[in-house]
Amino acid sequence: MSNYYVRRTARVFATIFAVATLTFGLIRLLPGGPFTQLRAQLLRQGVPASEVDARIANLQNINPNAPLWQQYLDYMSSVAQGNFGESISLGEPVALIIAEAVPWTVFVVLVSTILMFAFGIFLGSLQAYWEGSRFDKAFSGLSIALMSIPFYVVAVISLYVFAYQWGWLPTAGTVGASVEKELSIPFLLSALEHSILPIFSYTLGGIGGQALAMRGNSIQVLGNDYVRVARLRGLADRRIATRYVARNAILPMYTGFLLLLGFRLSGTVILEQIFSYTGLGYYMFAALKANDYPLMMATFLVITVALIVGVYIADLTYSKIDPRISAGGSDEAY
Amino acid sequence: MTAEQHGTANTTTAMTTDDPIIEIRNAAVTYDGGETFVLDHVSASIERGEILGIVGESGSGKSMFADSLLDAIPDPGRLSGEILYHRDDGTTVDVLELSDDELREFRWEEVSMVFQGAMSSFNPTMKIGGHFKETLKAHDADVSAGMEFGRELLSDLYLDPERVLDSYPHELSGGMQQRALIALALILEPEVLVMDEPTAALDLLMQRSILTLLEDLQEKYDLTMVFITHDLPLVAELADRMAVMYAFQLIEVADREQLIGNSGHPYTRALLNATPDVEAPLEEMRPIEGQSPAPINVPPGCSFAPRCPLATEECRVEDPAFTRLDSGHAVACHHAEDAREEIALHFDRHEDSIPASGGDEQ
């Protein structure tokens, strides 16, 4: 058993290593190559030609004239130390930019994903209990409609209506410009106010899918003999609803929840762009536009690592919450 | 529809017992508002302390009969008629008249049930012990005393109580789950235990040992048992009295020896002849031609008539009433006397040569 945990943990690092290597390789395959572009940019900025290579080496932790393996080793060892180099477009260390951006993104993604599951599970189980009722039919239709509207459409519309037309909520940013960046009540309120629209638009569309999944799971569980036996044994309806139906219906969605957390981090590229919300996705897009390779590589790495860690946690904890699954063997979540 | 006819024909309870614990009068189950019946106006009585075996093929209404005893017909079925339960103290209740709360108490405390799929009768994410505890709590019973009794029951069933109570259902074998389920059914010391195909999913050896255990339990706790199965030889070993169901009705009720050795209904006799037996030569096995009717096309008159070698015009027109043939033996057939002569039973009529369980439909 402990052997399994060791192997599983080793695999996390192996995967991250592979991703970092791929990032390094892919960057090199980009048209024009990162260094040609960077060199031209530096020259345009008036950096003397003799200093350009030194500047590049400084920015990227890479000496462009060294052999490829040398560059690779330099890059990997600095990444391992948390040094992602310096952002070309912003002129700040990448690690600093990411450290400032990640909390906002994690906040929005975490809250919206939890809300999405909470509403989805609640509505889905109501639908299952009243299967075939008018509510069930109407809400199933609504769920499918919600699922088919992309979140960025919801985002743009809600931004237009609530922020620009009615002026109820701010149009951009993570906190108000006049608020001090410190842990205080005005700061928290302002942060909350700014996050409402991103969270709302990132949650709404997802509720439908989760509700349909929960509905299906619950109907299946409700049809099981053990629910019928539980009723005959005289158990209270509430106990059957929670301990029998909800528990067994939610279990299969647990892995999905952790995976979705990772996946939705990457969805913030569009979301944060719409709301000018300076999180991870916002900087990734900015880096893409500005050909800011160090920043691009770092954001990409962070998002991938988040996904890998999500799967890792799902794998390690699933056996704890579902007694039928024992850790190890072929029951892993991916 | 002939349902009403069936009903009136069968209300005359040919079978009454001295001290019935449950009397079923004209019980009928319909899923389409009375067009068709999956339990077609059945009347029967269950004697206190007996083991009643109910035999019938798949889809003959056996499970509906079992579910009726607890007023537990799966939705959206409707159960009508009377299910009279005679308490120890002499009072009588109609189970169908009980309020929701009374019914909740009645089930498991008075009449309990074991379902066919033990594997699916436990919550997969709860330990066996949790099932026992929550049942005791739901009935406001003393949990520690109840668990003590539960351990005793599990020991009676040759299970290691501590290990079983601390296990999740999937950690137990099918036979262990089945025995644990029987213990769970008896945790509140009910008077009556209804078992719907309790051994269907088990291998022959496990079926055997469960039967023996059930006999011991019945003696020790003075239980009344209703044992429902498609496996005629199996229940023949256990039951005091047997009833045969065909096409949603009871067609014959008699003491075990009488039903096996001297049955009066052509279907029962054909069923006995169709039972596989290792010792009997293969030529002697007789399948019953045709198949039993679906609820939507139960024939008028006797429902077995289309497959019956003795059927006459009378059988096709008039549904035979459930009538007394001998003492303690009732049959729904116009030609019961003829059947005994015309349809010979292929095995010896001695009680000790009841054919061994054939193990069909495993």
From TrEMBL, chain A:
Transmembrane segments: 12-30, 104-126, 138-163, 183-205, 249-275, 295-314
Membrane topology reported for the UniProt record: Multi-pass membrane protein
GO cellular component, one term: plasma membrane
Entry's localization field: Cell membrane; Membrane
Family annotation (CDD domains): TM_PBP2
Keywords: Membrane, Transmembrane, Transmembrane helix, Transport
PROSITE patterns on file: ABC_TM1
Superkingdom: Archaea
Any GO BP annotation: transmembrane transport
InterPro entries: MetI-like (IPR000515), MetI-like_sf (IPR035906)
Gene3D superfamilies for the chain: MetI-like
Domain ABC transmembrane type-1 residues, every copy: 102-314
Family label: Belongs to the binding-protein-dependent transport system permease family.
Protein name stated in the entry: ABC transporter permease subunit
Lineage per the UniProt record: Archaea, Methanobacteriati, Methanobacteriota, Stenosarchaea group, Halobacteria
